[in-house]
Specification:
Elements: E1 5-9, H1 21-30, E2 34-41, E3 47-49, H2 70-73, E4 92-93, H3 94-101, E5 107-112, H4 122-132, E6 139-143, H5 146-151, E7 160-165, H6 172-179, E8 183-187, H7 193-202, E9 205-209, H8 214-223, E10 227-230, H9 233-248
Parallel strand pairs: 1-2, 1-10, 2-5, 5-6, 6-7, 7-8, 8-9, 9-10
Antiparallel strand pairs: 2-3, 3-4
């Protein structure tokens, strides 16, 4: 049976503001195998870690990320919305995150937020950052944007590329493979044993998001998914230990 690793969705996003250094530090302390985070570009083409296209939900500012320079974003509070204990948390640059992660035993999943705003050269900018910090061999770049997946054909030999899917459709694994993806990331309600078999046959990794409840977690463990991406990494780690201990006594 394959080992299923636990990946923190936007860091420990249920106990700290998502995609901040506080969230990354907390999930690392919990012992996660990896971190998933989101990448967009500022007005001056600096890659930053932020999920929404607009700032309103998770900061004290409004407007689109793409309309601010990186320096302007640094004056924005990205923590107080979550709790006053995190007042002063800032929007994190990709460079800051990679520098922090460089010498830690962490797998990284960088989701390109280019399905609604197709940022020019985002793929190449992210790739060059990973290359500079020598993190290509333990990073996956993922996207919902099939055109973006195809654009990354020049990087495929050096870094894993994952296609993000939200809907079941015929020949999904084949379609991902033809795009040039070497991994498939699916929404947890899409998980079936046949998709596991198809991924194994095609030699592509399968990761499942966003797995927060116990039943879907154990289903992923039972089917041998490569990873689960969860808002509750501490719970994921605990439940995987329980699952494995149950198997060992059978």
């Amino acid at each position: 049976m394959s080992t299923t690793t636990i990946i923190a969705h936007r860091g420990a996003s249920k106990i700290a503001p998502e995609n901040t250094m506080a969230a990354f530090e907390k999930c690392y302390q919990q012992g996660v195998c990896g971190i998933e985070t989101d990448v967009q570009l500022t007005k001056d083409n600096v890659p930053v870690l932020f999920h929404d296209q607009t700032l309103k939900r998770t900061t004290n500012a409004k407007g689109y990320v793409k309309d601010y320079t990186y320096d302007q974003l640094q004056s924005i509070d990205a923590g107080a919305w979550f709790s006053k204990d995190f007042t002063g948390e800032r929007i994190v640059s990709l460079e800051t995150f990679l520098r922090w992660a460089q010498y830690k035993p962490l797998y990284l999943n960088l989701e390109l937020k280019n399905n609604k705003i197709d940022y020019k050269h985002l793929e190449a900018i992210v790739y060059e950052h990973l290359k500079y910090y020598r993190l290509l061999n333990r990073t996956t770049i993922s996207s919902f944007n099939s055109t973006s997946i195809r654009r990354m054909k020049y990087f495929r030999e050096h870094v894993e590329i994952a296609y993000l899917a939200t809907k079941r459709k015929k020949n999904l694994v084949k379609a991902a493979k033809e795009m040039g993806a070497s991994a498939l990331h699916i929404e947890y309600r899409m998980l079936r044993q046949n998709i596991i078999r198809q991924c194994r046959k095609a030699y592509i990794n399968l990761r499942v998001y966003t797995v927060n409840r116990l039943a879907p977690m154990h289903k992923c463990f039972k089917y041998g998914c490569d990873s689960i991406i969860t808002d509750y990494p501490d719970k994921g780690i605990e439940q995987y230990k329980i699952f494995m201990s149950g198997r060992s006594v059978r």
